[in-house]
Write a structure and sequence with these properties.
The complex is a heterodimer.
Chain A lengths: L2 H13 L6 H26 L7 H18 L5 H23 L4 H21 L1 H4 L5 E2 L12 H23 L2 H11 L1 H6 L4 H27 L1 E2 L6 H14 L6 H19 L4 H15 L4 H19 L1
Helix pairs in contact in A: 2-7, 2-10, 2-11, 2-12, 3-4, 3-5, 3-10, 4-5, 4-10, 7-10, 8-10, 11-12, 12-13
Chain B lengths: L1 H31 L6 H19 L2 H22 L8 H23 L15 E4 L2 E4 H23 L1 H11 L1 H6 L4 H27 L6 H16 L4 H21 L7 H12 L10
Antiparallel strand pairs in B: 1-2
Classes of the chains: A mainly alpha, B mainly alpha.
Chain lengths: 314, 286
């Protein structure tokens, strides 16, 4: 039943861009990168109930790793750098989860918020390596044997993100994925049934972190560089807000949230270049009141009604 | 040795500011289950309003009054207007308080401009006492005194009064408190606004110690406040006090002996505490 709209969106993403402005294509690439980040966060946040407010830190570790390889080593091979960067993200995610493991809910959120800020502080403070607040720039598109442009990099991102979306979809529909929902709903019961809940939460967080790292890698190539502002609280908050606005534990909600937040930010900042945070903040507050449960579940519900109504008519 | 003592004292005065800032966050989190991410904004509102009024009137007392009232009103607005309707909806609370971070930060940038403002030190406190080869300002001594008095007062309020008893009970078992005929909602608003006022007070007396306030101060200071809550444990005055002083002193010593580590050291402390005791040093619950 949900296949038709999904295919329609995917077709738009495949066929649409050649007819669109380059600035909009850049926005779409950004939406895909942050959509993947939000989606990966949803695995930890929505499905497992691990409220991570530090995912931009994990995202940033992979982005910085990619950047540092380019800047300070002779290794420029995409197929070597990328696994190392994902591994770094996974290690950082494992550390986050290990430190915060014994807490849950808002306490987990506060602890990961502080840990994410630790990554931010390293990026700001370790000036000889990370160039402080200014960040590192000048990263070209990955060398994969064919020349990248704005639009072809968009298609590359789309392909990678679509593959990741499929993998994450399968993961959340696997027995392991369902056990995570069980842990979220009632951890004591899951433990009584013999699940090693702490290990499963750790694995879920590391998987989530690995995909967040991949999102960071896609973003750093798109952006041509990385600065601490992409790593800190505002970036982590954005990722979490995308998931909440889009709908938690829906996976696709992350993309909806990413599109809503980034397009709003893009258009509002064109209208008022200096005052857009006020309007974006007001949008978040309005979303807190009126988008309860998230946009994606509501859209799905509307579609379901439309289909049922259509069936009843015919 | 004098250098060590003076840095402990520096840390103590910074810690007192952190204590005033973090108490409200800690109590609100323990009592209402609300993470007010905009709590740092209340600090900044108090700081800016206090400095503006203080520079205008030349009176330190009026500056403090302006800081406390403005932060209290902002807290009242956020609680009554928004958070009250989102009780037990943690995710929506995150959206709303995060939205306020954007709005209040940008408003302050708009009103006060991008340049830092320095704080007000009343003329009576501009001197310093000598400790060996170093000097320690009266102002910092006064801040330590204010913090100590506030801590004793708040502890008394928590342990010895009816309101304190209701708040402690509300953290442990809100349903029973309701069933006993206590309107916990009123207590919640009161606690939220009182915490906001303390954050405003921390703002105005903390600027000279932080070395100035800018529009990003509110977003930066929330991390310190959160670390205080995590290290000390959520939901008690004594927890916030111990966490604040520990972080204040450790940060100050790090600034003296290993300046490059000064901004990490509180997170390191946080991780150590979490590994040893996940609920914080004096926490009510994990």
């Amino acid at each position: 039943m949900y296949l038709a709209p999904l295919v329609a969106v995917f077709l738009f993403l495949v066929i649409g861009p050649p007819f669109l402005d380059t600035a909009i294509i850049s926005q779409l690439t950004k939406i895909l990168c942050f959509g993947l980040l939000a989606m990966s966060l949803d695995v930890a946040f929505g499905y497992t109930g691990l409220w991570s407010f530090g995912h931009a830190g994990i995202f940033g570790v992979a982005a910085y790793t990619t950047m540092l390889f380019f800047k300070y080593t002779a290794i420029h091979n995409f197929w070597i750098i990328t696994p190392v960067a994902i591994l770094m993200a996974a290690i950082v995610a494992a550390v986050f989860a290990a430190v915060a493991a014994r807490s849950s809910g808002l306490y987990f959120l506060l602890i990961t918020l502080a840990l994410g800020q630790l990554v931010y502080c390293v990026a700001v403070q370790w000036k000889p390596v990370t160039n402080g607040d200014d960040g590192l720039w000048g990263l070209p598109y990955p060398q994969l044997g064919f020349p990248f442009s704005n639009i072809s990099y968009y298609y590359f991102t789309l392909a990678v993100v679509a593959l990741c979306a499929f993998l994450l979809y399968r993961f959340t529909r696997s027995p392991f994925g369902y056990s995570l929902v069980g842990i979220r709903e009632n951890e004591v019961r899951a433990r009584t049934m013999g699940y090693n809940t702490r290990l499963r939460k750790l694995i879920a967080f590391v998987i989530s972190g690995s995909f967040a790292g991949l999102a960071g890698i896609l973003y750093v190539y798109f952006n041509g560089g990385i600065a601490p502002e992409n790593v800190g609280m505002y970036a982590s908050g954005m990722a979490m807000i995308m998931v909440i606005i889009g709908g938690t534990a829906t996976l696709w909600g992350g993309f909806v949230g990413s599109a809503v937040v980034l397009l709003s930010q893009y258009y509002i900042s064109q209208l008022t270049p200096a005052r857009w945070p006020i309007f974006l903040g007001a949008l978040f507050i309005a979303a807190g009141f009126f988008a309860g449960g998230g946009i994606f579940p509501r859209l799905a519900c509307l579609w379901k009604k439309a289909v049922l109504y259509g069936d009843a008519e015919s | 040795m004098d250098g060590f003592v003076i840095n402990i004292l520096f840390g103590l005065s910074y810690g007192m500011v952190l204590f005033l800032l973090a108490t409200g966050l800690s109590i609100v989190l323990g009592l209402m289950g609300v993470v007010n991410l905009a709590h740092g904004m209340l600090f900044m509102i108090g700081a800016y309003a206090g400095v503006t009024v203080g520079k205008l009137t030349g009176s330190f007392a009026l500056a403090i009054l302006a800081a406390v009232i403005s932060a209290g009103l902002a807290g009242l607005f956020i609680e009554r207007g928004f958070l009250r309707k989102l009780y037990k909806r943690e995710l929506d609370q995150i959206l709303v308080t995060f939205g306020f971070i954007y709005i209040i930060t940008n408003l302050h940038l708009w009103i006060y401009g991008p340049y830092p403002r320095s704080g007000i030190v009343p003329s009576g406190l501009s001197g310093a006492i000598a400790i060996g080869a170093y000097s320690f300002s009266f102002y910092r001594l006064a801040v330590i005194a204010i913090g100590t008095v506030a801590c004793i007062g708040l502890f008394w309020l928590q342990e010895r009064t009816r309101i304190g008893a209701v708040i402690r009970a509300g953290m442990d078992d809100p349903e029973t408190v309701y069933a006993s005929g206590v309107n916990l909602m009123t207590i919640n608003v009161g606690a939220f606004c009182f915490g906001a006022m303390l954050a405003g007070l921390a703002g105005i007396i903390g600027i000279p110690i932080l070395g100035g306030v800018t529009a990003t101060t509110g977003g930066d200071i929330i991390f310190v406040a959160i670390s205080v809550c995590i290290v000390g444990g959520v939901g008690s005055i004594q927890g916030a006090f111990v966490g604040a002083l520990l972080i204040g002193i450790v940060t100050s010593l790090a600034q003296r002996y290993y300046p490059a580590t000064a901004i990490y050291v509180m997170y390191v402390l946080m991780v150590i505490v979490l590994v040893l005791k996940p609920s914080g040093l004096l926490g009510r619950r994990a």
